[in-house]
Protein backbone atom coordinates (compact mmCIF):
# COMPACT_ATOMS: atom_id res chain seq x y z
CA UNK A 1 0.00 0.00 0.00
CA UNK A 2 1.40 3.42 -0.97
CA UNK A 3 2.08 5.95 1.73
CA UNK A 4 -0.14 9.00 1.59
CA UNK A 5 1.86 12.22 2.11
CA UNK A 6 0.86 14.14 5.17
CA UNK A 7 -0.23 17.74 4.57
CA UNK A 8 2.33 18.92 7.17
CA UNK A 9 5.36 17.49 5.33
CA UNK A 10 7.75 20.19 4.05
CA UNK A 11 7.99 20.42 0.26
CA UNK A 12 4.68 18.62 -0.25
CA UNK A 13 2.32 21.55 0.06
CA UNK A 14 -0.38 22.26 -2.46
CA UNK A 15 0.48 25.01 -5.00
CA UNK A 16 -1.46 28.27 -4.82
CA UNK A 17 -3.66 28.72 -7.88
CA UNK A 18 -5.27 32.06 -8.61
CA UNK A 19 -8.91 31.55 -9.65
CA UNK A 20 -8.13 27.83 -9.76
CA UNK A 21 -6.23 28.06 -13.06
CA UNK A 22 -3.09 30.21 -12.73
CA UNK A 23 -0.33 28.61 -10.64
CA UNK A 24 1.27 31.79 -9.36
CA UNK A 25 4.22 30.07 -7.64
CA UNK A 26 5.46 27.96 -10.55
CA UNK A 27 4.65 29.97 -13.70
CA UNK A 28 7.36 32.51 -14.48
CA UNK A 29 6.13 36.13 -14.57
CA UNK A 30 2.66 35.33 -13.14
CA UNK A 31 3.30 36.74 -9.67
CA UNK A 32 4.87 39.99 -10.86
CA UNK A 33 2.20 40.54 -13.49
CA UNK A 34 -0.63 40.11 -10.98
CA UNK A 35 1.05 42.39 -8.43
CA UNK A 36 1.78 45.15 -10.95
CA UNK A 37 -1.72 44.77 -12.40
CA UNK A 38 -3.35 45.23 -9.01
CA UNK A 39 -1.19 48.28 -8.31
CA UNK A 40 -2.10 49.70 -11.73
CA UNK A 41 -5.76 49.04 -10.96
CA UNK A 42 -5.63 51.00 -7.71
CA UNK A 43 -3.72 53.89 -9.25
CA UNK A 44 -5.96 54.14 -12.32
CA UNK A 45 -9.23 53.81 -10.41
CA UNK A 46 -8.29 56.14 -7.59
CA UNK A 47 -6.78 58.67 -9.97
CA UNK A 48 -9.93 58.69 -12.10
CA UNK A 49 -12.07 59.05 -8.99
CA UNK A 50 -10.03 62.04 -7.79
CA UNK A 51 -10.41 63.71 -11.16
CA UNK A 52 -14.11 63.02 -11.83
CA UNK A 53 -15.76 61.84 -8.56
CA UNK A 54 -17.70 59.22 -10.53
CA UNK A 55 -17.63 55.98 -8.57
CA UNK A 56 -18.91 53.50 -11.13
CA UNK A 57 -16.76 54.84 -13.95
CA UNK A 58 -13.73 54.84 -11.64
CA UNK A 59 -14.31 51.14 -10.89
CA UNK A 60 -14.52 50.46 -14.61
CA UNK A 61 -11.28 52.36 -15.18
CA UNK A 62 -9.68 50.38 -12.33
CA UNK A 63 -10.67 47.05 -13.90
CA UNK A 64 -9.43 48.25 -17.29
CA UNK A 65 -6.18 49.38 -15.69
CA UNK A 66 -5.75 45.97 -14.09
CA UNK A 67 -6.25 44.18 -17.40
CA UNK A 68 -3.95 46.48 -19.38
CA UNK A 69 -1.13 46.57 -16.84
CA UNK A 70 -1.31 42.82 -16.16
CA UNK A 71 -1.21 41.92 -19.85
CA UNK A 72 1.50 44.47 -20.56
CA UNK A 73 3.71 43.15 -17.76
CA UNK A 74 2.93 39.55 -18.72
CA UNK A 75 3.96 39.93 -22.38
CA UNK A 76 7.03 42.01 -21.54
CA UNK A 77 8.22 39.51 -18.94
CA UNK A 78 7.48 36.44 -21.08
CA UNK A 79 9.34 37.99 -24.03
CA UNK A 80 12.41 38.62 -21.87
CA UNK A 81 12.10 35.14 -20.34
CA UNK A 82 12.01 33.50 -23.78
CA UNK A 83 14.96 35.61 -24.95
CA UNK A 84 16.94 34.59 -21.87
CA UNK A 85 16.11 30.91 -22.43
CA UNK A 86 17.36 31.13 -26.03
CA UNK A 87 20.59 32.80 -24.88
CA UNK A 88 21.09 30.10 -22.25
CA UNK A 89 20.56 27.36 -24.82
CA UNK A 90 23.08 28.96 -27.22
CA UNK A 91 25.62 29.37 -24.41
CA UNK A 92 25.09 25.78 -23.24
CA UNK A 93 25.57 24.50 -26.81
CA UNK A 94 28.74 26.58 -27.19
CA UNK A 95 30.17 25.25 -23.93
CA UNK A 96 29.32 21.71 -24.99
CA UNK A 97 31.07 22.21 -28.34
CA UNK A 98 34.09 23.77 -26.62
CA UNK A 99 34.47 20.75 -24.36
CA UNK A 100 33.85 18.35 -27.22
CA UNK A 101 36.30 19.85 -29.74
CA UNK A 102 39.03 21.21 -27.44
CA UNK A 103 42.41 19.74 -28.33
CA UNK A 104 41.23 18.02 -31.53
CA UNK A 105 41.88 18.95 -35.15
CA UNK A 106 38.37 20.49 -35.23
CA UNK A 107 39.21 23.06 -32.50
CA UNK A 108 38.65 26.57 -33.98
CA UNK A 109 41.24 28.16 -31.66
CA UNK A 110 43.86 25.66 -32.72
CA UNK A 111 43.21 26.50 -36.38
CA UNK A 112 43.53 30.23 -35.67
CA UNK A 113 46.77 29.75 -33.75
CA UNK A 114 48.30 27.66 -36.56
CA UNK A 115 47.36 30.35 -39.11
CA UNK A 116 48.88 33.14 -36.99
CA UNK A 117 52.12 31.24 -36.40
CA UNK A 118 52.55 30.49 -40.13
CA UNK A 119 52.22 34.22 -41.07
From TrEMBL:
One of its GO terms (cellular component) is mitochondrial inner membrane. It comes from the Eukaryota. InterPro entries: Cox20. The keyword Mitochondrion applies. Keywords: Membrane, Mitochondrion, Mitochondrion inner membrane, Transmembrane, Transmembrane helix. GO terms for biological process: mitochondrial respiratory chain complex IV assembly. It is found in: Mitochondrion inner membrane. The keyword Signal does not apply. Belongs to the COX20 family. This is Cytochrome c oxidase assembly protein COX20, mitochondrial.
Amino acid sequence: MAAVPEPDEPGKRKPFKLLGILDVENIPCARDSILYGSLGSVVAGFGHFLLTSRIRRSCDVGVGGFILVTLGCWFHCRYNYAKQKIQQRITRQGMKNKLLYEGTHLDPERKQNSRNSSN
